[in-house]
Amino acid sequence: MLKIWGRTNSVNVKKALWCIEELGLQYERVDAGMQYGVVNTPEYRKMNPNGLVPTIEDDGFVLWESHSIVRYLAAKHGAGTLWPRDERTRADANRWMDWTFTFLNAFRPVFWGLVRTPAEKRDLSAIEEGRKKSAELLGMLDRALVERKYVAGDAFCMGDIPIGCHAQLWMRLPIERPGLPNLEAWFERLCERPAYRKIVDIPLT
Ligand SMILES: N[C@@H](CCC(=O)N[C@@H](CS)C(=O)NCC(=O)O)C(=O)O
């Protein structure tokens, strides 16, 4: 059976778990990372030398890097759904998956500052700078969503998964957000998905 290591409040673990749930796969999950440890054991480091989560093991095949995991599982089990058959649609999906790292560079100080740092230790100017940059970048996605329901067209696919996980953090953090109506409508569409509600749209911890 497919096995995944990673704590459920990790945004990168959420990407893999959401994908697995969308595909309706049976799986076993092992808590790992932060308070659960595991990631520094020799056994884990042998699988994933980064000591990060998530990692999956699929019938002897070990894989880490959340976006690669999403691509692998989508290609294996989701041809025509999560894995677009059309090459250009798939390239578009891949583009937004890769762009998620651009967004993450701006957004990381906001999430870490507000969720993982005690109030007295927060760098408020770094949080505000990150918030402004994140808002600008999400404006790009908002404009791309003017004429399409999902990031790579009118069907939900793997391209929505990484940025959909970070968008949940953006939408649920107690921060000022500019009005981005297309992005908000897309987020509402994601919230209609049972797998998104189960895995991604959970309280921030
Ligand atoms: N690029 C990697 C990043 C993985 C990563 O940074 N994971 C974080 C959680 S989101 C982690 O393992 N942090 C250490 C820990 O949880 O102990 C991926 O997308 O899988």
What can you see in these coordinates?
A hairpin with a 2-residue loop joins strand 3 and strand 4. The chain has a 4-stranded mixed sheet, with helices on one face. With 205 residues, it is of the alpha+beta class. The longest helix is centred in the middle third of the chain and has 29 residues, at 87-115. The radius of gyration is 17 Å and the shape is globular. The protein is built from 8 helices and 4 strands; from the N terminus they run βαβαββαααααα. Bound molecules: glutathione. The site of glutathione has 12 residues, from helix 1 and helix 3. Glutathione binds next to helix 1 and helix 3.
Provide keyphrases for this structure.
binds glutathione, 55% helix, 205 residues, four-stranded mixed sheet, 8% strand, alpha+beta
Beta-strand proportion: 5-15%
The overall average pLDDT, rounded, is: 98
Number of strands: 4
Q: Largest beta sheet: what is the strand line-up?
A: 2-1-3-4
Largest sheet: 4 strands, mixed
Q: What is the helical fraction, as a range of percent?
A: 40-55%
Give the N-to-C terminal Cα separation: 29 Å
What's the SSE pattern? EHEHEEHHHHHH
